[in-house]
Amino acid sequence: xxxxxxxEPPRPGAYPPGQGGPSSSGDxxxxxxxxxxxxxxxAAAIALVAGAIVFTSGDPGKEQVPLGGPTxxxxxxxxxxxxxxxxxAATKAEVIAAYKAAWDEYLAVGRDSxxxxxxDRLRAHRVGTxxxxxxxxxxxxxxANQIFDGEVKLLNPKVTELTPSTASIIDCVxxxxxxxxxxxxxxxxxxxxxVQRATVTMKKIGxxxxxxxxxxxxxxxxxx
Length: 224
What we know:
This protein has a domain at 89-217: Roll (Nuclear Transport Factor 2, Chain: A), CATH 3.10.450. The protein has 224 residues and is an alpha+beta fold. It has helices at 33-52, 89-111, 120-123, 128-143; strands at residues 54-55, 65-66, 146-154, 158-162, 166-181, 187-189, 194-205, 208-217.
């Protein structure tokens, strides 16, 4: 609707239906996966055969040696290169948790008929334009005696940029919220499913990560 804030969650009718839907794979890859399976199995079989081939020097008394060189002794596992851990993994997890909490509390306030747009649960997780946008949405909704109904799913949030005080997230957000009358429970707006690609900015205020901006666009979520 035209009075809906462009910053999350996109309300039903705000965007053309069918745009921005998630896709797990493109049509271009259809039919290739079985071939990869077959080729992979063949490659593995060939490697096993090559490793089993041995040669002799012509002297039957000499030990046979695999073509690839001496094997490890029984019970000794071959050495493998260690996988480098992401030094920012813990901080990224904190950012994602804060991002999810911002959504959870927004929906909780929106479903609470007694809550107002100044609810402390919003300020605990949002600042700047993000806070202002959800407060505006809630003011309009509450003044019409409406509350949220339905749910929002955060399909695949990823931290793409991270500094000591800011972070950027991309996500695919599935919004299936609507509104009902807070008194009678009668449906006002249907819970129409809309999927959008989202870009989020998080800021660290003191020791707490908070959402400072949220934008969504009509774009495919494939690969997000």
